[in-house]
What does this fold into?
Amino acid sequence: MFAIGADLGQSVDYTAIGIIEKTGTLDLRHIERVPLGKSYTSVVDHLAALKAALPGSRLVIDNTGVGRPVRDMLTERGVDVVPVSITSGRKTRYVDGSWRVPKQVLARGLVAALENGGLRIAKALLYTDALKAELADFQATFTDKGTGVFGGKREHDDLVIAIALAVWGVSASTGA
It folds into this structure.
């Protein structure tokens, strides 16, 4: 089974896409950053083509912010999408046609897969070094109330989020 994770951006943040194949392990087969300034229509075309090339795959997109119109465009084209609104909460739930998944759940799933050797990242992928740098910078900080806030210390965490969405997509039961 394949899952395509997409963290959407355009002018400041990249749209990042990661493809995970679940076999006995989780294998990162593809990662990319769409060039800044690329139209959402082009991104939709690209995501639809990736999904068509991997029949039966799950396309898991960040439904937060600009994700909603991208989801609408994909759905209008007949592309099946698993929308995920990334929240600061603690509980995963399905509400009004979208998954609400805490960022900490996404981060923990990715970290667990990395720590237990369940996620294999090919060295030869174009953005492997950028992903490793983002992973090294990705951290949890805590508010005064003890709530974990996850994100990159530097400019981008888009590849990490795309991969985390794909890991969640192959690991979670997404049948609403």
Notes: Residues 40-53 form the longest helix (14 residues). DSSP finds five helices and ten strands in the chain. Helices lie at 40-53, 67-76, 103-115, 128-137, 158-171. Strands lie at 2-7, 15-22, 26-34, 58-62, 82-87, 93-95, 98-102, 119-121, 138-142, 148-152.
